[in-house]
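Entry: Short-chain dehydrogenase
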Amino acid sequence: MTDQTRSRVLAGHSVVITGAGRGLGAAFARLAAAEGARLVVNDINAAAARQIAVELGEVTEAIADSSDVSSWHGAERLIGTCIARYGSIDGLVSNAGVIAVGRPEEATEADLRHVIEVNLLGTAFCGVHALRAMLLQGRGSIVNVTSGAQLGLPTVAAYAASKGGITSLTYSWAAATKGSGVRVNAVSPDAATPLAAEVAQHFPDTPAGDKSPESNAPAVVYLLSDLASSVTGQVVLTGGERLSVLDPPSPRRPAARQPEWTVELVAQAFRERWS
């Protein structure tokens, strides 16, 4: 079946994409629109959201929204806008994110709060409101956007922490919604984005994404679609030629065992097993 004749995989789906005014979010929105989704294009930059919504309006129904997802009521309003306009919410891509670049000891309270509130709480707030609606519907797909930074990057510690939290949210929500018809997954993109450029500007030696945002979009659209009806609780690594799935964290095996642990025995275990 050719691309011209096959059915569009998101036809009839109503989807919210946060942070969709540029970069990865815009790429996700464009492919979702091409695949038939009706969209709510969210971005705190209202002009950017409108620009993408107007562009996508040529191929699908799309509306712009500038709700602040780091606000509980802003997230509630965003999800409610989708339901009011389209009658349901079938998909949510929580992509909105910010970054604060610098050595961890140089961070300010404002930096830390802003990154955690937008990235982690914004994802949590939107997800909770979407889950409430999706569970009542008995269907829906949430795709959270995490990052390989969760494994630790010295110049974006708060960002890394927020992304680790998003991965944990994904695993937890997937476990909680198993068998409900609602699915929760995440993608960990590799992409040349404005956030990656900001890191590279200040710390050129820090690894940064170099793949196109568009190369990450097919996996997101797949996870939103009914093609992925059996897929939940997965973190998918995307970008360029790469596609793989992250193994959930687990203890190193076999475990060291002692009838009773002492400080010296703990030191010995680390020296002999894990140093």
